[in-house]
Amino acid sequence: MSANTDDGLLIVSEEICEKVIRRPDAFSAVEAVFGAMARGDAYNFPVVREAIGHADALYGFKSGFDRAGMVLGVKAGGYWPGNMAKGLTNHQSTVCLFDPDTGRLTALVGGNYLTALRTAASSAVSIAHLARKDAKVLGMVGAGHQSTFQLRAAVEQRDFERVVAWNPHPDMLPRLAAVAEELGLAFEAVTPEELGAQADVIITITSAFEPLIMADWIKPGTHIACMGTDTKGKQEVDPALFKSATVFADEIAQSITIGEAQHAVASGLIGEGNLTAIGEVINGTHPGRSSAEEITLFDGTGVGLQDLAVASVAARLAREQGLVTPVAL
Ligand code: NAD
């Protein structure tokens, strides 16, 4: 059943999103839309992001259309740094879904929980398609809000036995350790050099503006998912890594402008032609990893179509489970 029914608008709260959508749902939705993007069946529209000159807020829209999934919509929201003091999350977003046949608004879906879920699904998709099958050690760089979502989704992709972690603010690591323990995984706080030497898969999910992980520290065969860089100027890894790795991205245009690849491209280390859309691997038009020694890097910048994909699933599940009542607009 689609959310695009003709009997009213669905309002799907954050609470309902948390109740209905599971990690495998988000994984499938994100994997499918990455595939559709690479086939040219789905496209993201230009992102709008503006400082509004009030409350230090950054406000913007991410929108797109997935012709394969028949999902049209926009995620609106942004970052309000003063929210924490008011007991609210600093990142605030809402997804609006429209009927692609008529333009009618079909659903308003809380976007905060879904953003974390779809971002974790993105790195999980990259691990599923690019990491070595025998990966045992997961390296986490970052220990903020997103990190636990990342950890939970990643460990479902391989038989990980151990988590090694480093964060610029070590006092934040216990929350990651608690999730690893809950998942039955050994956890160790290490230096970033040790992390590079031990991890088979690395996820970076920080707000850094300078490289935290150097190319020389990464061992052959590693898969690294760079997830924190989603704005011009942010940076998590040594640009030299882009030279030694085979590089994939959710969306190449976004990766080279606001993603982790921006620095390697700006310094002339690589060009746009060195990046492959992960959707090509999903669709089987690119072989993905070619050897056990190859380093693979995924630049997950976060595209609007990911938000729309998971919001559409949440709206459909909420409706199927009788948790929402359509209202007339
Ligand atoms: P958070 O504020 O909860 O945690 C921030 C993390 O970055 C912590 O690990 C913190 O120690 C670290 N950090 C903070 N300032 C730093 C600095 N100056 N240098 C190095 N590290 C620093 O944030 P979060 O919600 O966990 O998000 C983490 C990052 O992921 C943010 O940059 C956010 O914009 C980005 N993000 C990306 C996507 C995507 O789709 N790619 C989606 C959501 C969030």
Automatic annotation (TrEMBL):
<dbReference type="GO" id="GO:0005737">
    <property type="term" value="C:cytoplasm"/>
</dbReference>
<dbReference type="Pfam" id="PF02423">
    <property type="entry name" value="OCD_Mu_crystall"/>
</dbReference>
<protein>
    <submittedName>
        <fullName>Ornithine cyclodeaminase</fullName>
    </submittedName>
</protein>
<dbReference type="InterPro" id="IPR023401">
    <property type="entry name" value="ODC_N"/>
</dbReference>
<dbReference type="InterPro" id="IPR003462">
    <property type="entry name" value="ODC_Mu_crystall"/>
</dbReference>
<dbReference type="InterPro" id="IPR036291">
    <property type="entry name" value="NAD(P)-bd_dom_sf"/>
</dbReference>
<dbReference type="InterPro" id="IPR054860">
    <property type="entry name" value="BhcD-like"/>
</dbReference>
